[in-house]
Amino acid sequence: MILVTGGAGFIGANFVLDWLAQSDEAVINLDKLTYAGNRENLASLANDQRHVFVHGDIGDSELTRRLLAQYQPRAIINFAAESHVDRSIHGPEDFIQTNIVGTFHLLEAIRGYWSGLSEESGQRFRFLHVSTDEVYGSLSKEEPAFSETHRYEPNSPYSASKAASDHLVRAYHHTYGLPVLTTNCSNNYGPYHFPEKLIPLMIVNALAGKPLPVYGDGQQIRDWLYVKDHCSAIRRVLDAGSPGETYNVGGWNEKPNLDIVHTVCALLDELSPRADGRPYQQQITYVTDRPGHDRRYAIDARKIERELGWKPAETFATGIRKTVQWYLENQDWVGNVQSGAYREWVEKNYGERQP
Ligand code: NAD
Ligand code: DAU
């Protein structure tokens, strides 16, 4: 079996659902259930014996040690993290605790477990750390996309904490020989994306008749990948990646934020038009920029394609249509995640931003 951390969040839940749709290998899912963790994402697995959910913190090495001894996983995939840049600006401490200290405790527990395995099981074992393109910093319009050898230049507390965790993972390979793999992926979108992030926030606000808050001039560029393509890349790296290597994952899909918002609005105009027949674009509002906002991310995904034969299956056009449709068909999920805590966050982040 495998152990997944953070499997009740956006990417982790998609990964667990896809994994069990394709394989009978059981999954232990360790998740702290922060505001971003949602067991409803895994509701379809409620009676599935192949999925064992454990409510806990990756920083609790006693718990992780017990789980490892009990279940003896052949691989661990670490999704658990604080993941939202704006939240890291308002309050960095949780990011340091989970992304750095938590990853350290997880690595320590895994090192103890791995060093007690037989030679054959130890060689077969993998720890896959899910990271981000944000560790590489920001690109100008002219610069080539991030390759795996681009230097680390993180600019936000979030990306700095992810960079630190990547360094720890690397060090555990070089120092102790732990068979690690690291993936650095670009922006994901798709089902179960928490509506604090750009694409789901725009869909949810548009349908609620609320402003669509575009930071600054809206010309920041992100490189978008459908979440199920990220999951297939992780499976491929787990199967065939070389220990100690890092793999950049992306969809060759650079787009300015404003284009993304226009695309979402156009799809909603088609699939769920406003009652007054006017375009959703009318709801776009320019608001104060994010401090230290990275201008452009772009992933050079040639290594994973060349060495492991991985390519994304979706284009942006097909992926974004599926995503908008999913949100339209899952209004109950949307309603349930918009709790009091969610409303407090929206007030904190957007209340102070001047249009
Ligand atoms: P998310 O915020 O939606 O989910 C994170 C999950 O981790 C939640 O279920 C949460 O409860 C859990 N968690 C948080 N702290 C924990 C802890 N201390 N112990 C155990 N569980 C904990 O995040 P996501 O968007 O699904 O991202 C998953 C991973 O992928 C993160 O490591 C993130 O840095 C990385 N990543 C995300 C993107 C993206 O576009 N979303 C892109 C590249 C990489
Ligand atoms: O690049 C990978 C990263 O992508 C992941 O590591 C992070 O976990 C993930 O959250 C995401 O980070 P971003 O900061 O790029 O995503 P976000 O959805 O927050 O913002 C995308 C862009 O949209 C960014 O340029 C900021 C802008 N934005 C965002 C929000 C929430 C707006 O203009 N308005 C908004 O309300």
Automatic annotation (TrEMBL):
Q: Which reaction does it catalyse?
A: dTDP-alpha-D-glucose = dTDP-4-dehydro-6-deoxy-alpha-D-glucose + H2O
Return the Pfam families for the record: GDP_Man_Dehyd (PF16363)
The processes (GO biological process) annotated in the record are: nucleotide-sugar metabolic process
Co-factor(s): NAD(+)
Q: Where is the NAD(P)-binding domain?
A: 3-323
Which top-rank group of organisms is this from? Bacteria
Q: Report keywords, A-Z.
A: Lyase, NAD
Does this UniProt record's set of keywords contain Ribonucleoprotein?
no
Q: Which GO terms describe its molecular function?
A: dTDP-glucose 4,6-dehydratase activity
Q: What class of enzyme is it?
A: lyase
Keyword Membrane in the entry? The reply is: no
For this protein, the record's InterPro entries field holds: dTDP_Gluc_deHydtase, NAD(P)-bd_dom, NAD(P)-bd_dom_sf, Sc_DH/Rdtase_CS
State which Enzyme Commission number(s) the record gives: 4.2.1.46
Q: Which PANTHER family match?
A: DTDP-D-GLUCOSE 4,6-DEHYDRATASE-RELATED
Stated family:
Belongs to the NAD(P)-dependent epimerase/dehydratase family. dTDP-glucose dehydratase subfamily.
Q: What is this protein called?
A: dTDP-glucose 4,6-dehydratase
Please give the organism. Candidatus Accumulibacter affinis
